[in-house]
TrEMBL record:
One Pfam short name: 7tm_4
Descriptive protein name: Olfactory receptor
Residue span, G-protein coupled receptors family 1 profile domain: 43-292
Gene: LOC112913669
SUPFAM superfamilies hit by this protein: Family A G protein-coupled receptor-like
C-alpha cells in the first residue's frame, strides 16, 4: 500500500525478489528447501522433548543444546514458510510490519545462538579441563542464568534494531533483493539516511559476535591443549573428531554472520549476502542436530529407549 506525502510515495509493502523466476528451477528449489525445512524442524523439535523427558540428559550441555535446537527452529520458522510461499506467489508481497516481525525473530534466534554456542564451548572446557570441579562450576543456577541471559540478550538486541527502524521512511524502490526481509536491504530503500541504523548494527552485532567468538576460541584452544596432553591415542582421536565437527559448525555460523553484518559496505553489497545468508538461516539449523546430537551416544540411546516405550 502506497501513500503520497510531500511528493514521495511512502512504501509500506515490499516485494521479496527471492532466488529465481524460472518455473522449473523454482519447483526444484521449492522441493529442496521444503525438504531442508522439514528435516530441520523434525531434528530440532524432536530433540527438545527428548531432553525434557530424559533425566539423564538434564545436564548443562544438553540444556544448552535443547535451547539451541529451539532457537534453530525459531530461525527456520521465521524465514522458510514465507520463502516457500513466495516460490508460487504472484505478488510476493510482505508488509513492513511482517518485515519487522521476521527480522525480530531471526535476530532473536541468531543472537541467542551466539551466546548459547559460547556457553556450550565454556561447558566443554570445564568438563575436559577441570572434570573434578565440573559440577561445582557448572551448577544448575549458572546454567539457567546463562540460558536466560542468552534469551534476554536476543530480545534486547532485536528490539533495539526494530525500534530504530521506525525512524526510517521508505520512498524508493519497493523491491527487496533477498529471500527474506533483512534490515540491510531495507536500509538501501530508505529515503532517510540510515547511518545511525547501520552504526547500531555494526556496534551491537559486532559486540555480540566478537564477545562470544572470543569465549569460543579461548575455550577450544584450552580443550585442544588438554587433548594433545592425553596419553591415549584412541581418546585423543575421539576428542579431536568431536571438537573438529563442533568447531566447523561454529566457524560457518560466525563466519557467515560476520561477513553479512560486520564487513565494510555491507549495505551496498547485499547481492553477495544471499548465498551467505543461506548458511546461517537454513544450513546451520539443519546441520546442528546431526553435529551435536546424532553423533552423541547418550542422545541416540535416549532416542532408542523412548522409541521402545512408544512401540
Amino acid at each position: 500500500m502506497d501513500v503520497t506525502e510531500d511528493n514521495y510515495s511512502l512504501t509500506t509493502e515490499f516485494i521479496l525478489i527471492g532466488f529465481t523466476d524460472h518455473p522449473k528451477l523454482k519447483t526444484v528449489l521449492f522441493v529442496v528447501f521444503l525438504t531442508i525445512y522439514l528435516i530441520t524442524m523434525v531434528g530440532n523439535l524432536g530433540l527438545v522433548p527428548l531432553i525434557l523427558m530424559e533425566r539423564r540428559l538434564h545436564t548443562p550441555m544438553y540444556i544448552f543444546l535443547g535451547n539451541l535446537a529451539l532457537m534453530d527452529s525459531c530461525c527456520a520458522c521465521a524465514i522458510t514458510p514465507k520463502m516457500l510461499e513466495n516460490f508460487f506467489s504472484k505478488d510476493r508481497m510482505i508488509s513492513l510490519y511482517e518485515c519487522m516481525a521476521q527480522f525480530y525473530f531471526l535476530c532473536l534466534a541468531e543472537t541467542a545462538d551466539c551466546f548459547l554456542l559460547a556457553a556450550m564451548a565454556y561447558d566443554r572446557y570445564v568438563a575436559i579441563c577441570s572434570p573434578l570441579q565440573y559440577h561445582t562450576v557448572m551448577s544448575k543456577k549458572l546454567c539457567l542464568q546463562m540460558t536466560a541471559g542468552a534469551y534476554i540478550a536476543g530480545n534486547l538486541h532485536s528490539m533495539i534494531h526494530i525500534v530504530f527502524l521506525f525512524r526510517l521512511t521508505f520512498c524508493r524502490s519497493h523491491q527487496i533483493n533477498h529471500f527474506f526481509c533483512d534490515v540491510l536491504p531495507l536500509y538501501k530503500l530508505s529515503c532517510v539516511d540510515p547511518y545511525i541504523n547501520e552504526l547500531l548494527i555494526f556496534i551491537f552485532s559486532g559486540s555480540v559476535q566478537v564477545f562470544s567468538i572470543i569465549i569460543v576460541i579461548i575455550s577450544y584452544l584450552c580443550i585442544l591443549f588438554m587433548i594433545f596432553r592425553m596419553k591415549s591415542k584412541e581418546g585423543r582421536g575421539r576428542a579431536l573428531s568431536t571438537c573438529a565437527s563442533h568447531f566447523l559448525s561454529v566457524s560457518m555460523f560466525y563466519g557467515s554472520l560476520l561477513f553479512v553484518y560486520i564487513r565494510p559496505n555491507s549495505v551496498k553489497e547485499e547481492d553477495k549476502d544471499i548465498s551467505v545468508a543461506i548458511f546461517y538461516t537454513l544450513v546451520i539449523p539443519l546441520l546442528n542436530p546431526f553435529i551435536y546430537s546424532l553423533r552423541n551416544k547418550e542422545v541416540i540411546n535416549a532416542m532408542k529407549r523412548n522409541i521402545k516405550k512408544i512401540l
